Amino acid sequence: MKLGRLNHVGVATPSIEKSIETYRTLLGADVIGTPFDLPAQGVKVCFIDAPNTQIELIEPYDESSPIAGFLRKDPAGGQHHVCFEVPDIDQAVAEMTANGATILGAPRIGAHGTPIVFVHPRDFGGMLVELMETPKEDH
Amino acid sequence: MKLGRLNHVGVATPSIEKSIETYRTLLGADVIGTPFDLPAQGVKVCFIDAPNTQIELIEPYDESSPIAGFLRKDPAGGQHHVCFEVPDIDQAVAEMTANGATILGAPRIGAHGTPIVFVHPRDFGGMLVELMETPKEDH
């Protein structure tokens, strides 16, 4: 395994709409995707493009959302996870598990349509890490 | 202003040495800088290269460090800030201030040797944002 691209930084927010306005007004973001729902993961998401990576805005889909839990602790929102690309999700899971990491659940399809997993934050010094199989059309 | 490159994600850690080992073992990081001190900012830092951006590991330099405060709340560490590049720091500060953002202090020289500022987290939904003038030799 070799450290892959940082696909995105995940940022929890109580309002994707307000966050978009902030990124547009203060930072000059101008490549902003259309927000969409991922009900199976309990989130609404929206990707904002920086020249070399993306910011994923994440809003709770409902009260049982993991993001709702995040916002109960930090109502304003904040950084939620970082996502690195891997060439093959099953191989990445096997290697990380062999090296002692705890993978949270089986691979599932993520916001970019490829398999993803999350790694327990205790394995990365309190940081939630997502691994995402690189979309084939991107490279 | 136009949203610039994500120069790095800043990650607070109680031990840069242990974090380096984690990134090396679990994610296969192999381009890892030499840790160095920034006593004026109260931190020790180390940059780990991903193909498209960097992770900045940040350890407290002393007990008065802002990172020491972070670790009192979250002892394991975690995501601390995101840093976007801007072509000119003074212009960025002027524009953001005009748009209502609160800039934390005057520009100072950051870990990459160019001027930086931080923006108040309340302006970005709880996320601490660093703006960094793009190093001239990089582009």
UniProtKB/TrEMBL annotation, chains A, B:
<dbReference type="GO" id="GO:0004493">
    <property type="term" value="F:methylmalonyl-CoA epimerase activity"/>
</dbReference>
<dbReference type="InterPro" id="IPR037523">
    <property type="entry name" value="VOC_core"/>
</dbReference>
<keyword id="KW-0413">Isomerase</keyword>
<keyword id="KW-0479">Metal-binding</keyword>
<dbReference type="InterPro" id="IPR051785">
    <property type="entry name" value="MMCE/EMCE_epimerase"/>
</dbReference>
<dbReference type="InterPro" id="IPR029068">
    <property type="entry name" value="Glyas_Bleomycin-R_OHBP_Dase"/>
</dbReference>
<comment type="similarity">
    <text>Belongs to the methylmalonyl-CoA epimerase family.</text>
</comment>
<feature type="domain" description="VOC">
    <location>
        <begin position="5"/>
        <end position="134"/>
    </location>
</feature>
<protein>
    <submittedName>
        <fullName>Methylmalonyl-CoA epimerase</fullName>
        <ecNumber>5.1.99.1</ecNumber>
    </submittedName>
</protein>
<dbReference type="GO" id="GO:0046872">
    <property type="term" value="F:metal ion binding"/>
</dbReference>
<dbReference type="Pfam" id="PF13669">
    <property type="entry name" value="Glyoxalase_4"/>
</dbReference>
<dbReference type="InterPro" id="IPR017515">
    <property type="entry name" value="MeMalonyl-CoA_epimerase"/>
</dbReference>
<dbReference type="GO" id="GO:0046491">
    <property type="term" value="P:L-methylmalonyl-CoA metabolic process"/>
</dbReference>
